[in-house]
Amino acid sequence: MNLDFSQIVPYIPFILEGIGATLKFVSVSILAGFILGTILAIFKITGFWPLKAIADVYTSIFRGTPLILQLMIIYLAIPQLTGYDISAFLSAVLAFGLNSAAYVSEIIRAGIMAVDKGQTEAAKALGVPYRSMMLNIILPQAFKNILPALMNEFITLTKESALVSTIGYLDLMRRAQIAGADLYRNFEPLFFAGVIYWVMVTILTLAGRYVERRMRQSD
Fold it and tell me: Rounded to a whole number, what is the largest CA-CA distance in the chain?
């Protein structure tokens, strides 16, 4: 076995810069996916069937096709169809945000449906407007129930972020690939990148457990 990690030492700062690039687009994607997913979840439980149909079709499309296909369509097809030269960063945010929204919407919908129906009936009896009822009564309770599932989705998104290396975005994975190509040694930089991904996911997991414990203690 011919391993020599000393050769990647000069590339360590270059690879570490990919952490910021990765977290930047993942954070924006998570926020976009959470906001859009919440809206879609509300559409799914509304009695207005056109909104429910839109949300169901959206979820079916984005859950039924590969994420990398969605990424490639946004990055390669949008310039062809519109003439707009979309950046790798914006393509990554759109693909991951739109894809995450489909999964988040199902998670939130399940959380809303799990809230005791008596809460909704009591709010309606008191004349609480639908918007206030959802924002102040139903959603806060739903989020407590679905926090573990949401954290799993965000962790999955972080791991899948390596896919953006296929469109040239200089994330952690792409920088490790560049280092490997320069050195003609791929194992060491890829192993180093793998350790960093593992550390990021572990931190996210521990943070999720901490928040979950705090929320349970507040009940």
Answer: 73
Instruction: Find the distance separating the first CA and the last CA of the chain, reported in whole Å.
Output: 55
Q: What is the residue type of 154?
A: F
Please state the pTM of the whole predicted model: 0.87
Structure tokens at 32: 């976009």
pLDDT tens per residue across span 122-151: 777 777 777 777 777 777 777 777 888 888
For 10-217, CATH number out of 3.20.20.60, 1.10.3720.10, 3.40.525.10, 1.10.240.10 equals: 1.10.3720.10
Distance (Å) of CA 48 to CA 4, 36, 56, 94, 105: 62, 18, 13, 27, 17
Output the average pLDDT for the chain.
89
Q: Residue 48: which pLDDT band, with cuts at 50, 70 and 90?
A: confident
